[in-house]
Specification:
The complex is a heterodimer of chains A (316) and B (234). With 316 residues, chain A is of the alpha/beta class. Chain A has two domains: 133 residues, Response regulator (Rossmann fold, 3-Layer(aba) Sandwich); 137 residues, Response regulator (Rossmann fold, 3-Layer(aba) Sandwich), CATH 3.40.50.2300. Chain A is built from eleven helices and twelve strands. Chain A starts with a helix and ends with a helix. By secondary structure, chain B is α+β, with helices and mostly antiparallel strands. The chains are: A alpha/beta (316), B alpha+beta (234). At the A-B interface, helix 1 of A face helix 1 and strand 5 of B.
Amino acid sequence: MKTVRVLRGLIAAIAGGVIGCLMILLPELRRAPSPPVIAFIPRTTGINLAEDMRRGAQAAAQMAGYRIYWNAPTTEDDVDRQIRITESAVRGGARAVILGPSNPRGVTTMLDQLQKHKVPVVIVQTEPPIPPGSYLTSVTPDQWQFGKLAAQRVMQITGGSGQVAIVGLDRATPETLTRARSFIDSLASHPDIEIVTQAQGSVQTLEAEQSARVVIHAFPALRVIFAVSADATQGAVLALDSVEPKAKIALVGCDRDLFLADDLRSGKIDSLVGIDAYSTGFEAMRAAVTGAGGRPLPMPEHVRPILITREKAAID
Amino acid sequence: MVSPETTAAVSSRRTQRRVRPLLLDLVILAASAAIAAGVTAGVLHWQRSPSRGLPYRDEFSSGNNSEWAAYDGNWNVRSGIMINESNERGAKLVTGSPYWTNYALDADISLNSIGDAGVITRVSDAEPGVDSYSGIYGGLRVRDEALVLGVADHAWNETVSKPMPEPISSNVWYHIRMAVQGCRVDLSAHRDGQREATQIAVTIPGCPVKGMIGLRSYDSGGQWKNIRVTKLPQ
């Protein structure tokens, strides 16, 4: 009888202990409901282009009552990390994904999987590696226009003759190849413009700088460098800075990114071809919201780039 | 022959015998619930005390950095110096209590290349990624030779930057101090051996209110030593 009483007391004490702990801990575990999430995973973040896109996407998301999950790899070429971040965001409940593929071919399998699981995906920054469909669309720059605008500027700078170099070609970022091809096509009818080299690029600024420096030293009569990406433009700025005496080489760059706008204003860059990243982010989010709401994604959209010269940047 | 009164008394005693242990069980239950609730609340209060673990100091002398959590980067301790050999954007190393509120963080830092490097305070919700944390960053930026301060909330919002008196040199030690008290942030930095510091003092509306400390670099490796955190008045 006594044993039973002791046991009962013990059980009451334990139950009381558990209840007491839960009384304190349960309110801690309760979470306020949060709005639905759309993941935005650009190539990398913390740079002007990405931050402008984020601001545009943020505005569109707020209007639609969505929250952004914003994250990206710390280097632009880290496709494995980008896949992990995207998959983790989807596992965490993201209703749609906006993706700027680090390497379009590297994310093909993931995109197939997302389509299979009916997760709407909007591609930005570069063309999608697979055809658009019910769950895949894009809001991307018109890459061909980049090369055309750059060629027009080169014609103005050179007056139609002289040596021109292209730097920053990178197979992992197909838009660099498209921009270069369109640039060459646009200058094909001007035989006095000589494209002396097409140099490989890198997302590492120091490597891009080294590549540009080699080109500058190899071609002393160079009139213009066309840098087909932001990293290539940044590398060319650093390389031109370090050339003594200062070479009279005009730099036509691509993408309003990194600190290139400052370099444009200070005259280190002649001109930049770029898109309105805020609008791109805004439109991409609007498409993602449509998909997240269960409606068919809009058709792919191309954003036309503009040429910003030093003079125009100074006015802005 | 048993009288009805006797039967009633026996019945009452039986009831009492049944109820009394139940009452006792209830008392034990209530008492232990109250004690457990009190102890749990006490432990939580202690755990969440903004003073717990302060002052904090890490000289990296033991080579043991297990109390630090790395989010990207390639972090190693050598001869009392924490080194990040990676120049990826936004590598972070975080330690301390998530409940620290008002404190000053002192560190000596040296940049490896052209990006920027510094310290972060009131860090929460950290994960791998460039600005993937909530907190306040203060650091030296080679690009515009400036002391820079901003808030990260899984995105970067620069608050202010101030030019350094001389170009920032790689592999030279700078002392940096960030004091956070309420939403007032005082950031200062000076080159080792020099007395005059570049200073920033701002109030950041809607600032992060509590969190850990950390080391961070962006597009540059870096070196950190003599990490100290001291409590400031609440």
